[in-house]
Amino acid sequence: MINYELLLRPVFGKTAWDVRRGAGSSLAFEFGEPRRQIVPEPVIPRKTLPTSQQRRAGHCGEIRGEWHLCICFCNWTYQRNGEELGNTESDGETMRKITADLEGKKLISIRTDENGRTFFQFEESRELTTMPNIKDLQGGERIEQWFFYTPEEKLLVFYTDGNLILWNPRK
């Protein structure tokens, strides 16, 4: 069994930055010092690109934090001071307000329960709670709810069945 609290302890107290909505209702967060992550070359062959882009192909990068959290393939709710401000089904404007509200807030703790829920506690009484999608549970599928990249480039994945897996994508 993975002691995720010990593994994630260094991220507690770090400030969330570049909090954003991804595809659908997924959310992404960066924590810690910025790092440039190299993105693989485009699928388009270099010689089909204009000359100016040929020189840049393969040298693309994006800025990520030492720690990168992605919440996906699950339902979630967001509360401030115990009042729900939004959830997975919220409209785009509400999602924008939620990500803006979390920007610059410190992650205080993460805890899970036996029902496959995770509670991400942020400073100033903010809490993001993830839970399995009912359809996934009924289908019996084991699907990722969230994953956390560590500074060592390991990946901690939390599944709908409440299990955590730590793996090293570089191996």
Overview of this structure, please?
- With 171 residues, this protein is of the alpha+beta class.
- It has one domain (4-31, 67-163).
- The chain is 16% helix and 42% strand.
- The longest helix has 11 residues, at 92-102.
- It is globular.
- The two termini are 20 Å apart.
What is the number of helical segments per DSSP (H or I, 4+ residues)? 4
Strand content: 35-45%
N→C terminal distance: 20 Å
Rounded radius of gyration (Å): 18 Å
Q: What is the quaternary state of this protein?
A: single chain
Mean pLDDT comes to: 84
Shape: globular
How many separate domains?
Answer: 1
Low-confidence residue ranges: 41-59
Helix content: 10-25%
Largest sheet: 6 strands, antiparallel
Structural class: alpha+beta
Number of strands: 11
Order of helices and strands: HEEHEEEHEEEHEEE
Q: What is the spatial order of strands in the main beta sheet? A: 1-2-3-9-10-11
Topology, please?
Elements: H1 4-8, E1 16-21, E2 27-38, H2 51-56, E3 61-71, E4 75-80, E5 83-87, H3 92-102, E6 107-112, E7 118-122, E8 126-131, H4 134-139, E9 144-149, E10 155-159, E11 164-167
Antiparallel strand pairs: 1-2, 2-3, 3-9, 4-5, 4-8, 6-7, 7-8, 9-10, 10-11
Provide a concise account of the structure shown.
The protein has one domain (4-31, 67-163). Helix content is 16%, strand content 42%. The protein is built from 4 helices and 11 strands, in the order H-E-E-H-E-E-E-H-E-E-E-H-E-E-E.
Give short descriptive properties of this protein.
single chain, 171 residues, alpha+beta, six-stranded antiparallel beta sheet, five-stranded antiparallel beta sheet, 11 strands
